Amino acid sequence: MPIKSILVSQPQPANGKNPFEALAKKHNLKIDFRPFIHVEGVPEQEFRKNRILLSDYTGVIMTSRNAVDHYFRLAKETRFKVPDDMKYFCISEAVAYYLQNYIVYRKRKIFVGKQRITDLIPVLKRQKSEKFIVPASDIQRPIIPQELEKAKLDFTNAVMFRTVCSDLSDLEDVKYDMLVFYSPSGIESLFKNFPDFEQGTTKIAVFGPTTQKAVEEAGLRIDVRAPQPGTPSMTMAIEKYIKENP
């Protein structure tokens, strides 16, 4: 069956950054976006039960925009005034620039990595006297605390937000020729919303090895994989599949 409709299990990309739009126009496709998961903040009262005081820390390791949002949310809710001399260690420039939503960027001590926690470790080691807090998700990548421990840094992981399954019940009677997944959490959400889901002729596209593993463990068939040699992006992989399966 030719592909005519695709559901991408993520929020729609910002204007000007949506390669799916060009794909849709080129091949006359209906492409919808729907987050299968979303982030919820840990309530203040629950956070307090962990007996973590934000005032005890002199440096914050920011690994995502969500980390930034929920650190400052909990600071406000716990009535902690973040001092002007707080040091911020950001995993990427994008995360560092996002701090501008909460602080006067040029007047703060901000250290930036390239993209991975391993790139940030040398910077953190030069600040070994600091006591770090890591605003984290409940599904934090293990490599983050592992690398911090290996570097013998004084840090505390603080779960400030959770990734939870979205309610997709309105999609029960809506059918798509292809479903696109970028994370194992998306697969978890699929089966939480539709426990009796059967793939049938529906094609499944996956990005990354961890997502691929989750799909295989769920007993589903993978039709499109990315990244692959020659198709580093999801849209390129889907287009290749469409051309090979007209």
What can you see in these coordinates?
The chain is α/β, with parallel strands linked by helices. Among the domains are: 40-163, Rossmann fold, CATH 3.40.50.10090; 205-219 and 233-246, no CATH class. It has nine helices and eleven strands. The strands form two sheets. It has a six-stranded mixed β-sheet with strand order 3-8-7-4-5-6. Strands 2-1-9-10-11 form a five-stranded parallel β-sheet, sandwiched between helices. Helix 3 links the parallel strand 4 and strand 5 (87-90). The radius of gyration is 21 Å and the shape is elongated. It starts with a strand and ends with a helix. The model has no long low-confidence stretch (mean pLDDT 93).
Major β-sheet, in short? 6 strands, mixed
Bin the helical content. 25-40%
Estimated structural class? alpha/beta
Write the H/E string, N to C: EHEEHEHEHEHEHEEHEHEH
Ends apart, CA distance between termini? 8 Å
The CATH class assignment of the domain at 40-163 is: Alpha Beta
Poorly predicted parts = none
CATH topology of the domain at 40-163: Rossmann fold
